Amino acid sequence: MGDKGSIWLPDAMSTFANEVDALFWFVFWTSTVLFIAVVAAKVYFMLRYKRTDETSVPEPVHESKLLEAAWIVVPTILVLFVFIWGFDVYLKMNTDPTDAYQISVMGKQWAWEFEYAEGVTAFSEMYVPVGRPVKLMMNSQDVLHSFFIPAFRVKMDVIPNRYTSLWFEATEPGEYQIFCTEYCGTTHSGMLAKVVAVSEEDFAAWIAEQSQDLPPEQLGEQLFAQCAACHAVDGSAKIGPALNGRFGTDRKLADGSTVTFDENYIRQSILDPASQVAEGYQPIMPAGYSSMSAKQIDGLVAYIKALQ
Questions:
Q1: 88 and 175 assigned to the same domain
Q2: Please, are residues 193 and 127 in contact by the beta-carbon 8 Å criterion?
Q3: In terms of C-beta distances under 8 Å and separation of at least 24 residues, what long-range contacts does 264-270 make, across chains too?
Q4: What's the number of domains the chain is made of?
Q5: Domain of 239, in residue numbers
Q6: Where do the H-state alpha helices sit in 174-273?
């Protein structure tokens, strides 16, 4: 936690994050003061008007029109104030600048895919330039997801067969966590990514570097980031089988048959994961990876083949 956050909120790292925080703290402290006032009044009336004699009859209480008007007018003013303030912040957060740099975001079980206008595709890390508005056009390949960057105070549902969007402008270089905040299946909690905010010069250099043709194994390593939530490369157990040191060995399947862990097995497992389920595992791998290009599949095969 830096000096721009609190025990309740992470550091505010986008242009409108401080406005969101200000509204939050106004509602928080106003609610706290009203809560204390109501509880204090309740305790006072309990003690002040406690019956001490069961035979006593209390005097009739006449209403106070001033008091009744006050507890109608004051809350109404507070609610209207919060509504106007909140609506102003809402408009700023939902009206993206016309010159915003656009990135396409695809949510899939269980990874985030980022596609840039220059044709670059990235997984798990979204590079953005500091001091420049960035608009995200988002869609889901399978189920409902929700894209959340706490440090930027932005969150939006990511829905199948429909585009949703949000925008932000990072104020300082750094790495900021991305979460999926809509339960989307077995590895929902592992559907993580990072925003990497860098200077305009470093962003341009990164784009140029990514635009170059990568060797298949290096491309596969980059693509494997979207598989890491389910498959380990260090032999540890996850919801999917570990993939290191398996190439050329025999793999027993759930139906009792045995196949050789070779290029064809890897390719078939990507394109049709339910057709060859490893023994001891459930057929939960999504089928959406069949949309990968031949070059991407070849890269993944090369990377998995080389794992020791």
A1: no
A2: no
A3: 266/300, 266/301, 266/304, 266/305, 267/297, 267/301, 270/297, 270/300
A4: 3
A5: 216-306
A6: 200-211, 216-223, 263-271
- Judge if 165 and 200 occupy the same domain: yes
Q: Are residues 125 and 80 in the same domain?
A: no
In the numeric block, which tokens belong to residue 172?
């300082």
For residues 302 and 294, the answer to whether their CB atoms sit within 8 Å is no
How far is Cα 178 from Cα 157, in angstroms, rounded to an integer? Answer: 13
- Calculate the alpha carbon distances from 12 to 88, 95, 193, 292 in Å: 18, 20, 18, 37
- What six digits make up the tokens of 4? 């721009």
Q: Check pLDDT > 80 for residue 290.
A: no
Under 8 Å between Cβ of 112 and 196: no
CATH number, domain of 46, equals 1.10.287
- Backbone phi, then psi, for 199, in 5-degree steps? -65, 165
pLDDT digits 0-9 by tens, 25-75: 999 999 999 999 999 999 998 888 887 777 777 777 788 888 889 889 999
On whether the CB atoms of residues 253 and 276 are closer than 8 A, the answer is yes
User: How buried is 101 (Cβ within 10 angstroms: 0-12 exposed, 13-18 middle, 19+ buried)?
Assistant: middle
Contact 163, 138 (CB under 8 A): yes
pLDDT band at 242 (very low <50, low <70, confident <90, very high): confident
Judged by DSSP in three states, 34 sits in helix
Identify whether residues 182 and 207 lie together within a single domain. Answer: yes
